[in-house]
Amino acid sequence: MDQGNPMNVPATRKDLMIVNMGPHHPSMHGVLRLIVTLDGEDVIDCEPILGYLHRGMEKIAENRTIIQYLPYVTRWDYLATMFTEAITVNGPELLGNIQVPKRAGYIRIIMLELSRIASHLLWLGPFMADIGAQTPFFYIFRERELVYDLFEAATGMRMMHNFFRIGGVASDLPHGWIDKCLDFCDYFLTGVTEYQKLITRNPIFLERVEGVGIVGTEEAKNWGLSGPMLRASGVQWDLRKVDHYECYDEFDWEIQWQKEGDSLARYLVRIGEMMESIKIIQQALEGIPGGPYENLEIRRFDRERDSEWNDFEYRFISKKTSPTFELPKQELYVRVEAPKGELGIFLIGDQSGFPWRWKIRPPGFINLQILPELVKRMKLADIMTILGSIDIIMGEVDR
Amino acid sequence: MIIDTTEIQAINSFSRLESLNEVYGIIWVFVPIFILVLGITIGILVIVWLEREISAGIQQRIGPEYAGPLGVLQALADGTKLLFKENLFPSRGDIRLFSIGPSIAVISTLLSYSVIPFGYHLVLTDLNIGVFLWIAISSIAPIGLLMSGYGSNNKYSFLGGLRAAAQSISYEIPLTLCVLSISLLSNSSSTVDIVEAQSKSGFWGWNLWRQPIGFIIFFISSLAECERLPFDLPEAEEELVAGYQTEYSGIKFGLFYIASYLNLLVSSLFVTVLYLGGWNISIPYIFVPELFEIKKIGGVFGTTIGIFITLVKTYLFLFIPITTRWTLPRLRMDQLLNLGWKFLLPISLGNLLLTTSFQLLSL
């Protein structure tokens, strides 16, 4: 480099190595591209590049009715599908002041909490695989298969359910489902204790995870983080307790939170949330009331008198009405506590079946912004630990 | 006259035998080597099968079951598949370094097999420096990894190769110190002498009981030398980026795979020889008196028993590294180096000191 002074220290020390962790990598975080600037083993900077899974979900929503759009929404966060469906129907329900029957509310809560458990399980598997322990990945799928079986019995599909409807759910629970679900809850508690024994007190795991990627309380609030990332930094903010939506107030459960804000705290928060979800499910299953599972009154057309769509056949027997719900000319922000954070929809209605603007606030997208800050002084191996503990899923980050 | 012809015939036949003898002499040198290599290959197949079955059991699934009965020919099937793959070269990599890298890793490990005893006279070469040969030659393997990492013209491979070299170097010293303690105990570095020194009191004569700390350090260091989990940052860097094996395909990749298992097998054999009593049956005296007789029997039966015992001990010990691989997470690079230099090195030095003082007090 420097022909004039051969005795100098070679100039290669100043060159930083730029490494591209491309959209294809064997780690299971979806198609995220990271351009990492390294100095030996230390990370100087990291630039995430998104957009590899962009499918134009928000634009598509402007040309679909709510019922037509429901199959799309499960593809945002394909691991916690019930939440995306819940928020899609919550918006129009709030706009139209539609009451959801009690039984439907309980069924929704059970499905939502099962989905939360499923999402946290599938967060745990790749997180441990990134740290190096490949076996928990198989164990979580064992439990997740049971959740899939429950979903398949109730909704007909293992993952992309299309189960929620405006005013309730699409169909009632099959006979015997409640007993099966109670059995699952009992079995799952033993599974979680197995994870605790295998993982939580493992010294190698603790060394990899403790003190890595610390987010302070003020920092978490300023960046707009939500979900377990926020609760692991000391802020006791859970939308289920803040917004009092659905029937969560009728159950007895605690907010899981930790103070340190490192990856270990986020891990503990999510494991704790899984146990709390089981408690909620057990209480809901034992207290589920009878009654209708869908508010069918909303299917009325009351603009024209004696419309054929209001006939008995179209409302109560096989023919379901279409087009259905008309969004009034208002705007509304509705949010739900998804396992990854606060999932929100900002909905501007036009007086028609299609929304005018359907803005999705994905928790993964907002939480991912903090990644370059967190990896700044860490080693190369910590990038994956921190990325795993943020818990993103590219389907909703890119939409 | 008759004596003359028979003498002449005897002299003629003697000369023919002489040249044949020479040829036989040369061939006879290669036969044990060939048998050993054959044995090693079969041993590798067994290890691969064992690893896949054990990992399947831990992960609650079934291992290989279609290639051969119970899936025992799976490794052969994988090797054959790799033979048929295209041999890729990176476009601007160093071709010579790239090609030689895996071979060096394999050759250096294969050479260490020559000092492992399977019986009193069943060792390829009974060197005076036996065990030290293994340590010295296995230090050449990181050079092979560096060559493959550098010759791949790929940043990740280079990083992986550097890490592999750093890791191997750091963990050689605790390994050597443990072996040194064993040599002190047995008054020799020859592997045959080390096993003989453990044969005196049956089960309780194993070096495992006389060097418990040394055993644990040797175990951890050999896991690090073989680059197995929890120390497999160079290899399963594939989780983050990709290791030094990225640009390899076909049989060169197979060579890396084999080198990894060769290393594991030789480490386990050395654990058996150094700590677990080698080819001795090691059943306590009060057990069965007939077997006590058999321990002294030579001949074919005795040597077969010797080989069998060595292999049984090795494979029973192999269960532990394989289970460890699928249970524990991975150490980060700086934690790994910390463990090697700041933790294992002082402890192994302390172990050596302890052994020396015990020897001085002739215990």
TrEMBL record, chain A:
Keywords assigned by UniProt, alphabetized: NAD, Translocase, Transport
Keyword match Repeat: no
Pfam families, sorted: Complex1_49kDa
Protein's UniProt keywords contain Translocase: yes
InterPro entries reported in the protein's UniProt record: NADH_Q_OxRdtase_suD, NADH_UbQ_OxRdtase_49kDa_CS, NDH1_su_D/H, NiFe-Hase_large
Domain NADH-quinone oxidoreductase subunit D: 130-399
Family: Belongs to the complex I 49 kDa subunit family.
The name this protein goes by in its record: NADH-quinone oxidoreductase subunit D domain-containing protein
Organism annotation: Hevea brasiliensis
From TrEMBL, chain B:
Cellular component annotations (GO), alphabetically ordered: chloroplast thylakoid membrane; plasma membrane
Any GO BP annotation: aerobic respiration
GO MF annotation: an example: NADH dehydrogenase activity
Keywords (A to Z) from UniProt: Chloroplast, Membrane, NAD, NADP, Plastid, Plastoquinone, Quinone, Thylakoid, Translocase, Transmembrane, Transmembrane helix
UniProt subcellular location: Cell membrane; Membrane; Plastid, Chloroplast thylakoid membrane
UniProt enzyme class: translocase
InterPro entries per UniProt: NADH_UbQ_OxRdtase_su1/FPO, NADH_UbQ_OxRdtase_su1_CS
UniProt keyword Transmembrane helix present: yes
UniProt topology in membrane: Multi-pass membrane protein
Principal localisation: membrane
Catalytic activity: a plastoquinone + NADPH + (n+1) H(+)(in) = a plastoquinol + NADP(+) + n H(+)(out); a plastoquinone + NADH + (n+1) H(+)(in) = a plastoquinol + NAD(+) + n H(+)(out)
The keyword Magnesium is assigned to this record: no
One Pfam family cited in the UniProt record for this chain: NADHdh
E.C. number(s) listed in UniProt: 7.1.1.-
Top-level division of the source organism's lineage: Eukaryota
Transmembrane segments: 26-50, 95-115, 127-147, 255-277, 297-322, 343-361
Subunit structure: NDH is composed of at least 16 different subunits, 5 of which are encoded in the nucleus.
Family according to the record: Belongs to the complex I subunit 1 family.
Physiological role: NDH shuttles electrons from NAD(P)H:plastoquinone, via FMN and iron-sulfur (Fe-S) centers, to quinones in the photosynthetic chain and possibly in a chloroplast respiratory chain. The immediate electron acceptor for the enzyme in this species is believed to be plastoquinone. Couples the redox reaction to proton translocation, and thus conserves the redox energy in a proton gradient.
Name of protein: NAD(P)H-quinone oxidoreductase subunit 1, chloroplastic
